Amino acid sequence: MSNQQFIHIPSSDFPSDILKWMKINANPKMLFTLMKCCKYFQDFPEFPYFVVKEVQYGFKRDNWLFQTLDGKVYFYEGTQGIENIGKKLWITEILVLSAFPKIVSCIIPKIAVCDIKSLSLQFQNLAFNEFKYLTASGNVIDIFLRESTIKYENDEQVFIDLIFKCVPNVETFK
């Protein structure tokens, strides 16, 4: 016999298939809200996302650095090191990407929620859709773009006014 505790979901007026469908199809923020306020969604053995306060690439040349909310730091080597993370990322504060020019394309598929307040891109070439995805939360207040370009899919440069529309609360732009 194992010492594992079994969590019993209370009976519900909803059919269990609908609850399962809601759990599978809810976006991460909605799922988090459901888990906090509804007893029918508290049967996860662990939170399904890797929540980090800070993500850096290029911290020590070709390495990833992830800092969790409780201050733990994780390192992964190489551009493919992010593949070692089994869960989707929920980034809450800082995203720093430098060195490797297309690293943005590597990390975006691994991000479930990007609630960043600070975005630093050094030597990056990214599509406007990628920039919009990283700044979609509307929480970004600091942007640092060092020798980085933001272009449309047809390779035309994005004008600064469209960049500012994506970050309405920006206070620092360098």
From TrEMBL:
Name listed for the protein in its UniProt record: F-box domain-containing protein
Species assigned in the record: Panagrolaimus davidi
